[in-house]
Structure formats: structure tokens, C-alpha cells
UniProtKB/TrEMBL annotation:
It comes from the Bacteria. Belongs to the short-chain dehydrogenases/reductases (SDR) family. InterPro entries: NAD(P)-bd_dom_sf (IPR036291), Sc_DH/Rdtase_CS (IPR020904), SDR_fam (IPR002347). This is SDR family oxidoreductase.
Length: 252
């Protein structure tokens, strides 16, 4: 097999949640640019439409609130109705309420766990039969530094992302024999809508950069290679793994 074929996504159908902003939007654009048919999924229809208008390739939109667990089967069907059952599922949608442990409410806890943890599982559960029928599929979850590190005001988010790491291993155990691999990307500090409060504090952003081995915070382009690796044939024998794309933050 030629090296370029290992990363070739032409003929593949990809669903990317959280495609309206941040790293989800970057992932949706990157997969479309790599030849996949991409369905972008997010709550904000206007932001999704803006993404599509700025993106080359074969793309479509599904506006949905993924924090509503009861609606996920219908959302999965709407996604499959666009181009057919997806080959690739990127679970990038997420929320971080940044509340101190003393201030977390049941409502905010449930919102965080539903969007960050339940939605990736139940969407994957709904899409795996289509992948199994093809004998090939890719599930890429978004973990976090907080999958393994405790940060201030991050108890609900950290709990969800720690669970995403284990969810990824459990998905791999359940479905890899059917040709469906499951892996996770754990980004370091990237400037996105979700991390805007961090980057609004220049001293804090610099402190995080200094914590890395490479001496800077992440740029979206830093995620491209790892993302395409997990999506393509290059990762055929890789499953149940979490790749920290953090400039060495967790190495120190």
C-alpha cells in the first residue's frame, strides 16, 4: 500500500459533532479537505451554516442539541439519512462550565455528563451497526488534559473527560473485532471558544505554554496529523488508545 493511501479519506463518510466552532470545526474542515463527505453536527444552526459556506468539499449540516439524550437516536438517523451510514465518528462537542466544586449544581453536572460523555457513547452505539456492516469504522473521541490532571473549577468537566478515556478503551474492547476502532485525542491548551477564559489571561496562557516541553500552546494545525492518523488506514492496528497532543505538557 502506498504511504498516501494510509491517510486517504476519499469515499468515506464522516460525522463530526461540535462542528460549529473550535477544534470540532477544524476537524470537520480537515476531513472535508481530505476527501471525506462530512456531516457537521452542532446546536447552533447559524454557526454550522457559516462553517459550511467557508469549507470546500461535500458537506452537510444537522442542527441538534446533543445534550438531550432522549433525542440522540433520532439525531443519528438524521445523520445517516444524508450520505448513508457514517464510516467515521468524531465526538468533538463538549462543554466546560468552570464551576468550583462547591458551586456545581445537578443541572450543570447533568449537562456536562450528557454532552461530554453520554452523547459520544449513544451516537457511537447507534452508528456502529452501519460500520459493522461495512467491516470498517473509526470512532475518535475528544479526551483532555483533565482526563488525568485536576484543574481548578473543573470537577464536572474532569469527571466527564476521565470517563471519556475509559469509554474509549471500553468501545475498543466492544467493537474492534468488527473492524471498528476507537481512539481518543487529548489536546493541550489550544485557543478555541471553549478555552477563551484561559487565553484571556495572558499570564496564565504563558504559564501553560511554559509547562510544555516545546514552549508554546497548541495551534489547530498541530492536531491535523494525529486526527488523520486515527481516521485512516494508518491506524488499522491501533485501538483503545489516548494520544495527548499537548506539546509535552503531561510529560513534565
Amino acid at each position: 500500500m502506498q504511504a498516501e493511501a494510509l491517510f486517504d479519506l476519499r469515499g468515506k463518510i464522516a460525522c463530526v459533532t461540535g462542528a460549529s466552532s473550535g477544534l470540532g470545526r477544524f476537524a470537520a474542515t480537515a476531513l472535508a479537505g481530505s476527501g471525506a463527505q462530512v456531516i457537521g453536527v452542532a446546536r447552533r444552526a447559524g454557526s454550522l451554516a457559516a462553517w459550511r459556506s467557508e469549507t470546500d468539499g461535500d458537506t452537510a449540516l444537522v442542527a441538534a442539541d446533543l445534550s438531550d439524550r432522549t433525542g440522540l437516536p433520532e439525531v443519528a438517523q438524521r445523520i445517516a439519512d444524508v450520505f448513508g451510514p457514517p464510516d467515521i465518528l468524531i465526538n468533538a462537542a463538549g462543554v466546560n462550565t468552570r464551576q468550583h466544586a462547591d458551586a456545581v449544581t445537578p443541572e450543570m453536572w447533568d449537562l456536562t455528563q450528557n454532552l461530554n460523555l453520554a452523547a459520544p457513547f449513544f451516537l457511537a452505539q447507534a452508528m456502529v451497526p452501519g460500520m459493522r456492516a461495512k467491516g470498517w469504522g473509526r470512532i475518535i473521541n475528544f479526551a483532555s488534559l483533565q482526563s488525568r490532571r485536576a484543574f481548578a473549577n473543573g470537577i464536572a468537566y474532569g469527571a466527564s473527560k476521565g470517563a471519556v478515556e475509559q469509554l474509549t478503551r471500553a468501545m475498543a474492547e466492544a467493537w474492534s473485532r468488527d473492524g471498528v476502532t476507537a481512539n481518543a485525542l487529548a489536546p493541550g491548551f489550544f485557543r478555541t471558544e471553549l478555552t477563551a477564559p484561559v487565553f484571556a489571561d495572558a499570564a496564565l496562557a504563558r504559564r501553560h505554554a511554559n509547562q510544555t516541553c516545546v514552549g508554546r500552546n497548541g495551534e489547530p494545525r498541530d492536531l491535523l496529523g494525529p486526527l488523520l492518523f486515527f481516521c485512516g488506514r494508518a491506524s488499522d492496528y491501533v485501538t483503545g488508545q489516548v494520544l495527548f497532543v499537548d506539546g509535552g505538557f503531561t510529560a513534565k
